[in-house]
Every structure is written in C-alpha cells, then in structure tokens.
C-alpha cells in the first residue's frame, strides 16, 4: 500500500513524534523546568537546531499535547499563558 505523504513529510512527522515522546518522558522524570532543549535533542539523537526546526518552544510540546487531548481547554490556557508571560 502506498503512503500518500511524501517521504520528507513522513520523516518530519516521525521526528516530531519522537521529540514529543522524549520530551514528555524527560519532563516526567526531571520536571519541566529542569529539562532543556539540549536534553531533548540528546535524547532524540539530533541537534538543537533540528529540534527547533520541528517545535517552536519547549512549552509548545506540552501545550500541543494538551490541545490534542482537550481542544476545549486550549483557548483558556492560551489566555492564561499570555497573561502570565506579561507579568513582571
């Protein structure tokens, strides 16, 4: 059976999934604040720039996961994150 996605898109999707899996595992083990993008990159076996090519921020790894599991929660969390980031 032929996969309709081009190889490059399939490889990118695999990398995104692996980055998320490793990140969530590290967050569970060490806590969110203790994990860096460099830690995630090392866990995936990729460079920091490769990780940033497939995810915008470390926070997006968690928020994207929350959005996929509970889309109704997303608008409230986005507002809260914006409010918190503007606090001194």
Q: What is the CATH topology classification name? A: Tetracycline Repressor, domain 2
**Unreliably modeled segments:** 83-88
Record field, number of beta strands:
0
- What is the CATH class? Mainly Alpha
Beta-strand fraction estimate: under 5%
Along the chain, the helix and strand elements come as HHHHH
Count of discrete domains: 1
CATH architecture: Orthogonal Bundle
Number of helices: 5
Intertermini distance: 55 Å
As a whole number of angstroms, the C-alpha radius of gyration is 15 Å
Structural class: mainly alpha
CATH H-level superfamily title: Tetracycline Repressor, domain 2
Describe it.
There is one protein chain. The chain has 88 residues and is mainly α. It has one domain: Tetracycline Repressor, domain 2. 72% of the residues lie in helices and 0% in strands. The longest helix has 24 residues.
């Amino acid at each position: 059976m032929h996969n309709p996605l081009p190889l490059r898109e399939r490889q990118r999707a695999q990398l995104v999934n692996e980055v998320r899996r490793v990140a969530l595992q590290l967050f569970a083990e060490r806590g969110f604040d203790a994990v860096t993008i460099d830690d995630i990159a090392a866990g995936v076996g990729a460079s920091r720039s490769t990780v940033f090519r497939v995810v915008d921020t470390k926070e997006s790894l968690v928020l994207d996961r929350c959005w996929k599991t509970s889309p109704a929660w997303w608008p409230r969390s986005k507002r809260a994150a914006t409010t918190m980031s503007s606090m001194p």
